[in-house]
Design a protein that fits this description.
The protein is α+β, with helices and mostly antiparallel strands. Helix content is 43%, strand content 24%. It has helices spanning 20-53, 55-115, 144-181; strands at residues 2-5, 14-17, 192-195, 198-201, 208-211, 214-217, 223-225, 230-238, 242-250, 253-263, 270-271, 276-280, 290-297, 300-302. Strands 3, 6, 7, 8, 9, 10, 11, 12, 13 and 14 form a ten-stranded antiparallel β-sheet that branches. The chain has a two-stranded antiparallel sheet with strand order 1-2. A two-stranded antiparallel sheet has the order 4-5. The longest helix has 61 residues, at 55-115. The radius of gyration is 53 Å and the shape is rod-shaped.
């Protein structure tokens, strides 16, 4: 077979010669490919028409889409619930830390008062001053796991500090208790030492005799104060002492206040350091108004001079 190809620009025609075998092969290809292509086109057209004309197919398609949307909505809600649970846990932990900080502030204010510290220096009612240069490179925003870990670590540190402050409070209280029970100070308002502790000339006999306390001359009726906290073990008359008050302070210490004109406490009373317990007088073996003051440790009279302070 001869095929003549004529160009549109009137140039010379090209002649192509096809053999019999080639013609047969082209025919077979044409007969096979053409029906397949026509079938594919017909299938696509039929599927489109069926979907347009068959509502059941549309319902199935819509149901599939709806199931997919419901699944995505459930996943979103689960993710949101997980985030809410994390936030609630963090809020609960933050509330506990805030409560611990309030306890520390209250304890700190009490310790500041107990220790006699300056309130302006240790004021737990305001935040301490902090600062610093702005960093050149900003850090990324903290994620929830890191934030939870930081809060847990902070809570542990806060609880540890609270226990340490509690121990410090106990030590301060013990120190204050020991200071309150130790007989140190001046046992009467005003006055001066008119006779010291130790051997002296007895004012009535003139003989050398032991004086187991100190005499503090003062006006009659001047208030006598407890030199330390304790319990009254004697309040009344005693031979040689006249009217006398004795106070047990624990740890083996006892103080005696003699020659009073009146006792303001009774046996069994608990007295505080500095509390008025009697009035200066001249009862008993005395030459005039004064306070005879003794300190006994484990039943033995000791020199009270080192326990007496100039502050009156």
């Amino acid at each position: 077979m001869h095929i003549l190809l004529v160009p549109s620009n009137n140039s010379s025609a090209n002649r192509t010669c096809l053999h019999h075998r080639q013609i047969v092969l082209l025919g077979l290809v044409f007969l096979i490919v053409l029906p397949v292509m026509l079938g594919l086109v017909a299938y696509q057209v039929r599927s489109t028409l069926d979907r347009m004309n068959n509502p059941q197919l549309d319902a199935e398609y819509l149901a599939k889409l709806e199931r997919s949307l419901i699944k995505q909505r459930i996943e979103i809600n689960d993710t949101k619930q997980t985030a809410d649970n994390h936030l609630n846990a963090l809020a609960l932990r933050l509330g506990k830390i805030q409560a611990q900080v309030m306890r520390i502030n209250a304890l700190g204010q009490r310790l500041t008062s107990m220790a006699g510290l300056t309130r302006g220096e240790f004021d737990f009612s305001v935040d301490p001053g902090v600062g610093g240069a702005e960093p050149l490179n900003s850090m990324p925003v903290m994620q929830l796991p890191s934030l939870a870990t930081s809060l847990e670590r902070l809570s542990f540190q806060v609880e540890q500090r609270f226990q340490e402050l509690g121990l410090l409070e106990s030590l301060l209280m013990d120190h204050q208790l020991q200071a309150a029970l130790k007989p140190v100070g001046w046992p009467v308002i005003g006055g001066y030492i008119s006779s010291a502790f130790g051997y002296r000339q007895d004012p009535f006999t003139g003989h050398r005799a032991s004086h187991k306390g100190v005499d503090i001359a003062n006006r009659r009726g001047a208030p006598v104060k407890a030199l330390a906290s304790g319990v009254v073990t004697h309040a009344g008359k005693k031979r040689g002492y006249g009217m006398v008050v004795e106070v047990n302070h624990g740890n083996g210490y006892m103080t005696r206040y003699a020659h009073t004109s009146a006792n303001l406490v009774k046996v069994g009373d608990k007295v505080e350091k500095g509390q008025k317990i009697a009035l200066v007088g001249s009862s008993g073996r005395s030459t005039g108004p004064h306070l005879h003051f003794e300190i006994l440790h484990n039943g033995r009279a000791i020199n009270p001079r080192k326990y007496l302070r100039a502050k009156r």
